[in-house]
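can u do me a favor
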């Protein structure tokens, strides 16, 4: 089977990987360089932040992330030479209002990854000696990890580009589906080139609403900007991830610490701004005051593909026989990525599914309403 995948972020790349490993041939498109959008910009925490604030459907996919990434890292590394570093740091959460919620969530769900413990100051200092004295206690998730997502993307791209059954077209904006007899016959790029395949997958992240008019569906996925800041400390300096007030510190093995983030609905604008960077800096120093002694080496922003509930759309698109979805992962596309791609592959190849697929169905997309009609409804 020949499958064309539009979008080479983590959703498209992992979908390609799952499908090529089953013998499919893949053509992958991206409007820019592969792996340069939200999936590069993200932090790589392998769990939703505060899982109890998310629907079970998000947590069900996310809970497989760490293990599946471990398997992919082992498989890909000999071919690519890239270790994308699943860094088992655990995480401290300082939000007092979440202590009881976190401990109850652990008791109810018994997911090893979400095991947590309440720590008094003395224990907290042994787990992480750099935490500000203003935090006298925390809850600690010892099994939470992060991945180095830019390296993950490099590894996926390198593996796929070496694969004889994969073709990658970068700098290729796909703008049109040619539809006949309830089937996509081909897709067309901005410069008029046509590409045929048996099946087609939309993995276009924050751009996914662009298909709404052509498909006559309302696609409620829009970009939500998140800004980040990168510190450089000595190797293995900060032992755990830290979280407070939805702001986080994510240590990498080589001493880089990724910090964020913000949430702004400002369209496709990816420019970091001074005010937000100051807020992130303040939140970082509040958690770990010694960070003020280390340089900030980079600042950036990325565009999350928001969806109303954060539950991605995975499965066959309505009305058409050969068009599939894997988009709308919002804040959790890196941790949900491997299981989302696995689910897509299972649905496309008629295999048993790892989770109940109904909750992710594209049947949740409603009929397209042109803007004038939408505004008269609101
Ligand atoms: C600041 C920030 C922090 C984050 N932290 C985390 C975290 O810690 N953990 C976590 O799990 N998630 C995190 N996320 C969320 C995660 O990054 C996203 O959910 C995920 O990357 C979405 O992946 P994607 O492949 O669907 O989208 P993208 O990575 O955006 O990829 C979509 C691709 O489609 C291409 N494309 C779009 N339209 C077309 C077209 N018509 N033709 C050709 N190509 C097209 C784009 O160029 C793009 O490369 C974070 C996101 C941000 C911004």
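np, heres the sequence
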């Amino acid at each position: 089977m020949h499958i064309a995948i539009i979008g080479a972020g983590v959703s498209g790349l992992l979908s390609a990987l799952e499908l090529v490993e089953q013998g499919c041939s893949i053509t992958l498109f991206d409007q820019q360089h592969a792996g340069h959008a939200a999936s590069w910009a993200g932090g790589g925490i392998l769990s939703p932040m505060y899982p109890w604030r998310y629907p079970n459907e998000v947590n069900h996919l996310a809970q497989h992330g760490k293990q599946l990434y471990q398997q992919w890292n082992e498989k890909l590394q000999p071919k690519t030479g890239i270790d994308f570093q699943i860094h088992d740091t655990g995480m401290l959460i300082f939000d007092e209002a979440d202590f009881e919620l976190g401990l109850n969530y652990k008791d109810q769900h018994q997911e090893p990854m979400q095991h947590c413990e309440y720590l008094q100051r003395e224990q907290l200092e042994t787990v992480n000696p750099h935490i500000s004295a203003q935090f006298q206690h925390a809850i600690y998730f010892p099994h939470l990890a992060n991945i180095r997502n830019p390296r993950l993307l490099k590894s996926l791209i390198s593996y796929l580009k070496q694969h004889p059954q994969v073709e990658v077209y970068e700098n290729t904006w796909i703008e049109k589906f040619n539809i006949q007899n309830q089937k996509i016959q081909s897709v067309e790029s901005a410069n008029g080139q046509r590409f045929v395949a048996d099946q087609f997958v939309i993995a276009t992240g924050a751009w996914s609403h662009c298909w709404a008019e052509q498909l006559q569906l309302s696609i409620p996925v829009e970009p939500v900007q998140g800004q980040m800041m990168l510190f450089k400390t000595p190797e293995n300096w900060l032992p755990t991830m830290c979280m407070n007030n939805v702001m986080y510190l994510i240590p990498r093995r080589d001493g880089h610490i990724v910090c964020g983030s913000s949430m702004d609905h400002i369209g496709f604008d990816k420019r970091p701004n001074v005010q937000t960077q100051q807020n992130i800096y303040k939140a970082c120093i509040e958690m770990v005051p010694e960070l003020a002694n280390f340089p900030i080496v980079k600042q950036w922003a990325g565009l999350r593909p928001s969806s109303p509930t954060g539950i991605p759309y995975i499965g066959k698109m309505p009305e058409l026989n050969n068009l599939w979805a894997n988009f709308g992962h919002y804040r959790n596309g890196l941790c949900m990525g491997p299981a989302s791609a696995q689910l897509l592959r299972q649905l496309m190849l008629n295999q048993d599914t790892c989770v109940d697929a109904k909750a992710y169905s594209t049947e949740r997309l409603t009929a397209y309403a042109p803007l004038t009609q939408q505004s008269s409804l609101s």
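Residues 84 and 152 are 5 Å apart (CA to CA). hope that helps!!
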